[in-house]
Design goal:
By secondary structure, this protein is an alpha/beta fold. Helix content is about 35%, strand content about 20%. It contains seven helices and eight strands, in the order ααβββββαβαβαβαα. The protein has helices at about 5-15, 20-25, 85-95, 110-115, 130-145, 160-165, 170-175; strands spanning about 25-30, 35-40, 45-55, 60, 80-85, 100, 120-125, 150. The strands form two sheets. It has a four-stranded antiparallel beta sheet with strand order 1-2-3-4, with no helix packed on it. Strands 6-5-7-8 form a four-stranded parallel beta sheet, with helices on both faces. The protein starts with a helix and ends in an 8-residue tail after the last helix.
Length: about 180
């Protein structure tokens, strides 16, 4: 068990709350000298472990499969999909029900199956504000069989948006004007 003061220090260093990291089941992996985030398949079974070193380098435990970052919260009918566990934690800080993929590309089938298995009815994809992030969001949107929309926060990514003072009201103001794409 990771002491709460360690989580608090890490949260502070990356501009998040310790509560949001707790919901992401973040823990210190002493033997790896890195922060660990579990990755899940569409049935919420752990399939891998994403690691993040103190300097921000991201890698996975050997033998891990890519999966989703799923916070320890009830799923809603409308879900936000982020890129990475810290963006997912940022979404939780804003009060947005969210899951995340390990990067801007991949896991489209796992995301689709997870959403179906959890009764999700529509999705907002939160893209990083770069070409790969936007292309990845568009690819995910094309693979989904649900109404969806893409939001690009006015920052590098969602965590940066939150870290720079972005609020739920600001996010809602931007998101409400997005057009839903239906499959």
């Amino acid at each position: 068990v990771t002491p709460s003061e360690y989580i608090s220090e890490f949260a502070s260093s990356i501009g998040l709350s310790s509560e949001s990291l707790d919901l992401m089941q973040c823990a210190w992996a002493d033997e790896r000298n890195a922060w660990a985030f579990p990755m899940y398949d569409q049935d919420c079974q752990i399939v891998g472990m994403r690691l993040r070193s103190e300097n921000g380098r991201k890698f996975s435990v050997a033998g891990s499969r890519h999966g989703l970052f799923v916070p320890f919260v009830a799923m809603a009918r409308e879900v936000y999909i982020c890129e990475g566990p810290t963006d997912c934690a940022a979404a939780l800080m804003l009060g947005l029900p969210a899951i995340a993929r390990p990067s801007c590309l991949g896991c489209e089938k796992t995301v689709s199956a997870f959403l179906r298995n959890n009764g999700v009815r529509r999705v907002t994809i939160i893209a990083d504000a770069d070409d790969p992030g936007i292309r990845g969001a568009e690819k995910l949107q094309a693979a989904l069989r649900l109404p969806s929309r893409i939001w690009i926060p006015p920052a590098k990514d969602l965590r940066d948006f939150v870290r720079s003072g972005g609020s739920r009201a600001e996010a809602d103001s931007e998101i409400k004007n997005l057009v839903w794409k239906t499959p």
